[in-house]
Specification:
By secondary structure, this protein is α+β, with helices and mostly antiparallel strands. It is found in: Cell membrane; Membrane.
């Protein structure tokens, strides 16, 4: 039997009590203010345009607090609507600026300057009201006499009657001045429904309002609507996002008692329920019962996705607002924690579904984005990993600029930011002088620059080689002897002394498949394999042309005992069939960077003349292509399904230098984990939802 979980009969405030409301007669909006103040309500609504912040020339009257009260706006004794009364508390902020000459020399004030300081203050206060699906803005003109003008002191309040709202709706209220001298005040409030108020005899829509409760039964969530057999009503589920209007997710017009079943994976904190009778001008009752549900919050984080938007922007996609912060960080290749970068992106609350620009001059594969709550890190993505290659062993230098052109440089390490030219025992401190010279000579890549400082990425390869040069010289003789002994013992050790080369060829079907190929190349590079792929050689590809680039890479790979990997996709299969049918017509139909199309003229003779085995390997991705789709001509070489046949695929790529089976299985698991995010992104159909929608079932 379902366990009662949450009922829609909520009352205003913390305690679920039944409230009795004051009645306001007539449709006219009104405004009144505290004793001593004068106020006027402008006729009609105004545009809701807060505008940008401006500096106050002196003391100004500004809103400091919002307070609400529910009332009934009645046209007849039994014809009333729920209405929100808003009280805006006001105070004087700011001071008159004293002229410098008066402060220094005690010169008497000009009477013309003294006069405005003793005058009354006037302010235009805007009240903005939003309750799905309506929004209003009204303008209140308030004047304070000179006797009450005391900077920093409260002067009273102005009360507006009133904003009409639907029973059970969530309302949002903002208040600011025009022009705007400070950040706007805001208030969000959940209104009660018919059962939380003494309004059944006053609001006609409550006479036949559908009864609704929400209950949990295992993994399912049930919406039970108890209504008469012949009653027709509307039911809508929507994501109540902030900012922006609510977005309907599911809508049905139903008749009679109903039970709506939701899967627990459909729950998110901003999922709200709205129900109303299918009658003219009926009141809609809305409620958002999943705000505090732990499963809804877990589902929200699972649905959140970080996206790269070229050239240097990113966006966090999620169905609801996230209580999280975003910052940039620097990920070193040693696998340690990502080091936060306060400049150039300070920690701030995330705005979901909005493109955000990176204030960077250049991109770098080690720069990542962290999205975290105050408790723990939830998401991290190194967004340029597919396009810029694997992580680099670069040293990040943080330049801080102070007054009078004072500058200091420190190197970001796992222990913190180490000042250059210090006596610390870290790598950055030992190389402080050379790193400083690299910055001055332009050998470091500048990632960010402004008045506060700069970020520099300095390559460390030459210092690593220099550091170990003497060690290599001392061990050279011993290494040569050991190498000769091992060479006599096992012939395949020579191949193990140097990682094998692999040339990846693929058809660029779409951006998702290119990201998948980039992820595979990066994972193979870590095995290690010396990977060549056109994604990492765009400049050479443009300069030489696809055909010349492929000839050079293929010749070098095969001369070094490497292997050419053909990644089959729907586009690659179609292209192969075109070549097999008519190579001349297919040659010019593809882009200038399509190395796969250019390579077919050289690949096909090897397969036709039986020279392919031992030099070529085929592969395709599960769910993207069936085994039978690979052309028969190319099945003369091993063709592997990824990631299901990763161990065999990796063993074939590494050849004689392949490790033992248990080690090979570990490497296959590492590659599979690296491919999974790109596979999920590639196979996710555009425009689909996150889960199955609700299904309605008739209850008899």
């Amino acid at each position: 039997m379902p366990v009662p979980w949450f009922f829609l009969s909520l009352a205003l405030g913390r305690n679920p009590v039944v409230l009795s409301l004051e009645r306001v007669v007539g449709p006219q909006d009104t405004a009144r203010c505290s004793p001593g103040l004068s106020c006027h309500l402008w006729d009609g609504d105004v545009l809701c345009l807060p505008g940008s912040l401006v500096s106050a020339p002196g003391p100004m009257l500004v809103p400091t607090r919002l307070q609400t009260e529910l009332v009934l706006r009645c046209y007849k004794e039994t014809d009333c609507d729920l209405c929100v009364r808003v009280a805006v508390h006001l105070a004087v902020h700011g001071y008159w600026e004293e002229p410098e000459d008066e402060e220094k020399f005690g010169i008497a004030e000009d009477p013309e300057i003294e006069e405005p300081r003793n005058a009354s203050l006037q302010a235009h206060v805007v009240l903005s009201f939003q309750a799905y699906p309506t929004a209003r803005c009204v303008l209140l003109e308030v004047q304070v006499p000179a006797a009450l003008v005391q900077p920093g002191q409260s002067v009273g309040s102005v009360v507006f009657d009133c904003f009409e709202a639907a029973l059970g709706a969530e309302v949002r209220i903002w208040s600011y001045t025009q022009p705007r001298y400070q950040k706007e005040l805001n208030l969000t409030q959940q209104l009660p429904d018919c059962r939380g108020l003494e309004v059944r005899d006053s609001i006609q829509s409550c006479w036949a309002l559908p009864g609704l409760n929400v209950s949990a039964d295992g993994d399912d969530v049930r919406l039970v609507l108890d209504v008469p057999e012949e009653m027709r009503f509307g039911l809508s589920l929507y994501w109540n996002q902030v900012p922006g209007p609510a977005k309907p997710w599911w809508h049905r017009n139903l008749t009679g008692p109903q039970t709506i079943t939701l899967n627990h994976t459909d729950l998110v904190p901003c999922l709200c329920i709205q129900v109303w009778p299918l009658e003219p001008d009926s009141v809609r009752t809305s409620i958002c019962p999943f705000r505090e549900d732990p499963r809804a919050h877990r589902n929200l984080w699972r649905a959140a996705r970080l996206q790269l938007l070229p050239p240097r922007a990113w966006r966090l996609d999620a169905p609801c607002s996230l209580p999280a912060e975003a910052t940039l960080c620097w990920q070193a290749p040693d696998g340690g924690p990502c080091q936060p970068l306060v400049p150039p992106l300070p920690r701030e609350n995330v705005t979901v579904n909005k493109a955000l620009e990176f204030p960077l001059l250049k991109g770098h594969p080690n720069i990542c984005v962290q999205v975290s709550t105050w408790e723990k890190q939830e998401l991290q993505e190194c967004l340029w990993a597919d396009s810029l290659g694997p992580l680099k062993d670069d040293m990040l230098l943080v330049e801080t600029r102070g007054p009078q052109d004072n500058r200091s440089l420190c190197a970001l390490e796992s222990s913190g930011c180490t000042p250059l030219l210090s006596r610390a025992s870290t790598r950055a401190a030992r190389l402080g002088g050379p790193l400083l010279q690299d910055v001055q000579s332009g050998q470091c890549l500048q990632l960010w620059d402004d008045d506060l400082g700069a970020l520099w990425a300095c390559p460390m390869e030459k210092y690593i080689h220099r550091r170990w040069a003497l060690v290599w010289l001392a061990c050279l003789l011993l290494a040569a002897v050991l190498f000769l002994l091992l060479l006599l013992k096992k012939n395949h050790v020579k191949a193990a002394a140097r990682s094998r080369a692999a040339l990846l060829l693929y058809s660029a079907d779409d951006a998702g498949f290119e990201r998948l190929v980039g992820a595979l190349a990066s994972a193979l590079f870590q095995l290690p394999l010396r990977v060549a792929v056109d994604l990492w050689s765009r400049r050479e590809l443009s300069a030489q042309g696809p055909l010349a680039w492929f000839h050079a890479q293929r010749r070098q790979t095969l001369q070094e005992g490497g292997v050419v990997v053909l990644l089959f996709s729907p586009g690659a299969v179609a292209l192969c069939r075109e070549w097999l049918q008519d190579a001349t017509s297919a040659a010019g139909a593809h882009g200038p960077h399509d190395a796969f199309a250019a390579s077919l003229s050289c690949l096909l003779p090897d397969f036709l003349q039986g020279r392919a085995p031992g030099r070529y390997v085929g592969a395709y991705f599960d769910r993207l292509l069936s085994p039978d789709a690979v052309p028969a001509l190319f099945r003369s070489v091993p063709v592997f399904s990824l990631p299901s046949q990763l161990p065999d695929f990796l063993g074939t790529l590494q050849g004689p230098a392949a490790p033992r089976p248990w080690r090979l299985a570990e490497r296959a698991e590492q590659v599979s984990r690296a491919l999974q995010p790109a596979l999920d992104s590639c196979f996710r159909a555009p425009g689909t939802g996150r889960g199955m929608g609700p299904e309605a079932e008739n209850r008899t």
